[in-house]
């Protein structure tokens, strides 16, 4: 059994593997292009680009725009594959970033960390950009579809359903994160059913992409067996040579053990999954408080109540300074053990998927009467 290709709108994806967008600066043009060159979807994160050296003025918002444009163009120079950007709904200049990505003819835009209810309004007639909201429930997926249909006569070109084992910001209440009723397997099936109900009335197929805690080719096989059209993976791509983060950032992934993976309360107003650091220990002890809001980057962040500036913390982590920051990571980060190339990772995932497929075929065959008869005679 081999991995089947995935079509999202007019874009043909040889391998149904989407590299998750990871900010600040973790997934930029280098990682995105490498994944696209191997047949997956490479994704640039738009979050916090204004913090990492674009432009010469002190205009953070303009730096974000310039940075996104620059990273898209760099990636395009390195690959002819399918590229996407991830733009968080919670970003203050969300609209500017949407327009920039579409002006650059990016293939796909992924959007979560809030409900992206107005994404279609940014599209240009005749453009090739396709829209993929990220949700954590069938209710959110249905709401987005109904709003888009009523207001723009448009349906999502695909939907990512992200479970509670993901890294970064999570669309769940803290008490839901360990509740099996909210596991990826459960909500994936619910979203697929909801999309079937909607598309049965419309002449459009909406692929559903599973995300959150997917680590091996066997995990991919399990998600596709449940009806997903593809998967999104973030954590596994951090420990690659091509990942745009510093070596020190990657090392914190390699050094992490299972008990280091913690759920935090983010200034964004959502729980998040991260690797424990000196900085997070000090936050928990009440020793960290932002004196000013340097960039006003997040709509839902209040300087009067925020325990720290999230963009500053994530930028520090990107550079390897965990006394002043921390790294987001998925629940399986403790399983990472070495740095490999994106090519080796993709080949490993394909091989694991094929081996799992053979095992599943064998288990299915064992249930057939003829196989039972053979085993009884043996």
Concise structural overview:
By secondary structure, the chain is α/β, with parallel strands linked by helices.
Annotation field: number of helices: 12
Secondary-structure element pattern, one letter each: EEEHEHEHEEHEEHEHEHHEEHHHH
Count the E strands.
13
- Average pLDDT works out at 90
Beginning-to-end CA distance, first to last residue: 27 Å
Q: What is the radius of gyration?
A: 21 Å
Structural class computed from helices and strand pairing:
alpha/beta
Strand order of the largest sheet: 3-11-10-8-7-6-5-4
Shape estimate: globular
Report low-confidence residues grouped into runs of 5 or more: 371-378
| Strand residue content | 5-15%
- Assign a percent range to the helix content: 25-40%
What summary fits the major beta sheet?
A: 8 strands, parallel
Please describe the topology of this protein.
Layout: E1 6-8, E2 11-13, E3 17-19, H1 29-37, E4 41-45, H2 60-78, E5 82-86, H3 94-103, E6 108-111, E7 130-135, H4 138-152, E8 159-162, E9 168-169, H5 184-199, E10 208-211, H6 217-225, E11 230-233, H7 235-238, H8 247-255, E12 261-265, E13 271-275, H9 278-284, H10 310-318, H11 342-366, H12 369-377
Description:
Helix content is 37%, strand content 14%. It is built from twelve helices and 13 strands. The protein has helices at residues 29-37, 60-78, 94-103, 138-152, 184-199, 217-225, 235-238, 247-255, 278-284, 310-318, 342-366, 369-377; strands spanning 6-8, 11-13, 17-19, 41-45, 82-86, 108-111, 130-135, 159-162, 168-169, 208-211, 230-233, 261-265, 271-275. With 378 residues, the chain is an alpha/beta fold. The protein has an eight-stranded parallel beta sheet.
